[in-house]
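Quick look at the format.
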Amino acid sequence: MAEVKLIGAWFSPFSRRVEMALKLKGVEYEYIEEDLSNKSPLLLKYNPIHKKVPVLLHNGKPIAESSIIIEYIDETWEGPSILPKDPYERAMARFWVKFIDEKCTVPMWKACSSPGEEGEKAKEEAAQLLKFVEEEIKDKKFFGGDNIGLVDISANFIGYWFGIIQELMGVELLTKEKYPNLCEWIDGYINHSFVKDNLPPKDKMTEVFKAFTQPGYSGYKPKV
């Protein structure tokens, strides 16, 4: 049997994406929790360029970057398809993953974590960008159609993490009034039995985000 290990952090949406993909395929793996405030020699050895989680080790060979890892998992192991079979739909799925990761995540995080004018500017930017996601999910159960696919797995920050952050920080950005389609997807997503079993507990996540926002906190913080 192939040896599969995953170096991750329990609270990281990027690590959780990979775990979901592995479980969706029924792949047995060893999970190695990483302390991101004191990075291990193992992480630095296998991801010396970015020094970030997640890192997948398959028979000792490392693969970094969550979106690349998920595609590798989909191509390597049998089981339910994560990416669409149709070339155009596959290209569009990759487009939306890239859009969410590179365009949406940073201003959404800054809208909740940055003070004053910077926070307001990020909130306006995020609000405009989320309109595109709102339109894309319209009249769909999941981004992948009837089943959870690549974009659904990769939009987990929007689907779960962000709701905890905006509630904790008292920010009203992603609401049912402004984004009814997206919020309907979120409700179906986090209540889907497979997804629910692979999300970190809300109370533990709240404590993590509280720590990030404390004055003088010197541990790991998400990079934006």
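Next, a different chain entirely:
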Amino acid sequence: MAVLRVRISCRGGLLGLAVAFLCCTGSVQSYGQSQDSEFTFLLPAGRSECFYQTAVKNGTMEVEYQVIAGAGMDVDFTILSPKGVRLIIESRRSDGLHVVEPMEEGDYEICFDNSFSRFSEKMVFFEIIIEGQGGDVGGDDEFPGIEEPDGSLLEYKLDDIRESMDSLHRRLERSRQMQTVLRAFEARDRNLLEDNLWRVSFWSCASVLVMLCVALTQVYTVRKLFDDKRRVCT
């Protein structure tokens, strides 16, 4: 009888662990489809590029952009509503962060303009973060087919697991976004460093050549001063 009780308790523990594993797996799969997006593209000189992002009413759309390469490191930035109303307008900026609260549902237009530059192309990075779209994450509908275990089976609480997974997902997503932004800053600083290195190297070589020419000219001039070509009769 004691052996039977031990077997039943072990089976109950394994069943509880299996239920918890299925909950975690379902939570991770539900977090796989993220609404956030990021993109790096090359903006040619004298042209503009527009992108479209669908947003729902009463949500939040956060747009952050940086110019990471190109002469001047600046572009014109505009966000237009589905009806064509200009919500954000910026001119000749290298970076920016804007939070838009959509008052209507539809496709919002995000444009980058480099028409003021005739020769220099720009490399632009931007990221879009959508919040408040599709309802709360971690609800009861995300775990179809998984029944709530009764209290006598195990002490696992699915609500606590869901809340912990939701908090972990939000923090990991925020960390990923911050790392992406830091990589964009690093790429921009590296491009500036390489550009400045080329300029410093070029002007250093030019200065060395000028100094050599001046030195040779001075030596030649001094030797000419002491060069006496008059004949001496003895």
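The first helix runs from residue 2 to 31.

See the schema section for token definitions.
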